[in-house]
Design brief:
Layout (H helix, E strand, L loop, with lengths): L3 H79 L14 H13 L5 H13 L12 E5 L18 E6 L3 E2 L4 E3 L4 E11 L4 E8 L2 E9 L7 E11 L4 E6 L7 E2 L7 E6 L2
Antiparallel strand pairs: 1-2, 1-11, 3-4, 4-9, 5-8, 5-10, 5-11, 6-7, 6-9
């Protein structure tokens, strides 16, 4: 009996220690689960806020697209009234400053941070609106591409001549490569292009949707660059768009180097 009693207390002590250890382990697991739950809650909260922000941005873009469609419908009204099939020659209504300010105020209230989207859409709208006044004095521009294209360009790609040493009358737009005619008259347009070795660049001079000139630099069978220049004399109306685009996919790069630039120029004959 004296020997069995100490063993009894020893077993009881061991059992108590084992139960205590299990309790401590369980508490640690619960604590870890609580931490993970808090972390998941923070993640869900962040995702929810981002989702709300994205929905707000999407709604703003949808409003801008709807606004643009309404603008397009207003622009087509003169076409239906006059019966003229040449939409490029029409004079479109000019957007008022008050409507622009109201639209910008709505965007600001929604805290849209994608300013590039707004600016690009605004730029697209402004391009289709002809000048409201005729500039006086000389109208002439000259622009060239500052460096070679990064690779072949696709058909109907509008060449963007990004360096503009001369832009009298402010008709040329450096952001898209389009010359918007400031005043009706007879103009001279000239452009020069250069193809890569074993390459070709087929270009078209465009007036609105009409091809008014073509020129091709072709060195597909040569190890040297080819250079070509085109010149067109044409009558254009105020608000017409004149630009240079590719007629076909280019073979190789569109070259433009210091000793031989790819250029686009035009001027009004007095």
């Amino acid at each position: 009996m004296a020997v069995g009693l100490p063993w009894f207390f020893l077993c009881l002590f061991a059992l108590h220690g084992a139960l205590g250890y299990s309790k401590t382990s369980l508490e640690e697991k619960i604590e870890n689960l609580e931490k993970k739950l808090e972390l998941m809650y923070d993640i869900v909260t962040e995702i929810t806020l981002e989702n709300v922000d994205l929905k707000t941005r999407l709604k703003a873009v949808e409003d801008l697209v709807i606004d643009g469609k309404h603008c397009g419908n207003r622009q087509r009204e003169p076409l239906r009234e006059s019966g003229n099939s040449n939409a490029a020659q029409l004079t479109f209504p000019h957007r008022t400053n008050s409507s622009n300010n109201q639209r910008n105020k709505i965007i600001d209230e929604r805290k849209i941070t994608e300013s590039d989207i707004k600016n690009n859409i605004s730029l697209e709208r402004k391009r289709i609106v002809p000048p409201t006044s005729t500039p006086s004095g000389v109208i002439a521009f000259h622009a060239y591409i500052s460096k070679d294209s990064s690779g072949p360009l696709g058909a109907h790609h509008i060449l963007q001549f990004d360096v503009v040493p001369l832009n009298r009358g402010n008709g040329y737009n450096v952001f898209d490569g389009i010359f918007i005619v400031p005043a009706t008259g007879t103009y001279i347009f000239t452009w020069s292009i250069m193809s890569d070795a074993h390459g070709s660049v087929d270009t078209q001079l465009m007036k609105n949707a009409d091809i008014i000139g073509t020129r091709c630099a072709d060195s597909t069978t040569s190890t040297v660059w080819d250079f070509a220049t085109g010149t067109v004399v044409t009558d254009v109306n105020q608000g017409d768009h004149v630009y240079v685009r590719l007629g076909l996919d280019s073979v190789g790069k569109v070259r433009s180097v210091v000793c031989s630039r790819t250029t686009f120029s035009g001027w009004l004959l007095s």
